[in-house]
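haha ok so turns out i had the wrong file open the whole time. this is the CORRECT one, sorry everyone. sequence first:
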Amino acid sequence: MSPFQRAGPALAALALASCVTTNLAQWRDPTYRPTPVHRILVVGNNPEWRKRVNFENAVAQALLRQGFDVATSGAILKPDEIDDQKIDAFVKEMNVDLVMVVGPFYFVVGYQDGFPSVVVTGEATVYAAKTNPESLIWKGDFKTVNATSDQDAAASVAAMVVYDLVKAGVLVGATGA
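then structure:
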């Protein structure tokens, strides 16, 4: 079973919290010519492995709902491993169209109206793996408020980022796009 096939069942438990709010300021390369996208690799960029995996999985789940084939770096790397050569080899071997990097992101835990609240700020970037893997084609800076957990924040960010990538014409060719 490929990492793309394993992603679906492992991510099914993620849910989007209704009270969480995410704002996104984005930029898209105006010279980028969209092509049909089939496979996407999501790479988390955070020193805390658990938070990295939460964000990778949330984004992967949002992409799966749009009909894309998705893998995460957590499926190909060992916990706490950072290996750009392994990621590059995977991208080539699996014919990945886009690489999305989520992070770095920062968490501030506090209280809102007497309840625990998580605020997350960070960025997501997208690169066209086949045409010019070093060239940024989309960037979004996000801020999520009123999350009750890392998973709530990750699900809200994922939904907003994927929505904007579809709207911006970067994610083209899946059933929901």
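Residues 5-18 have pLDDT under 50 and may be disordered.
again sry for the mixup
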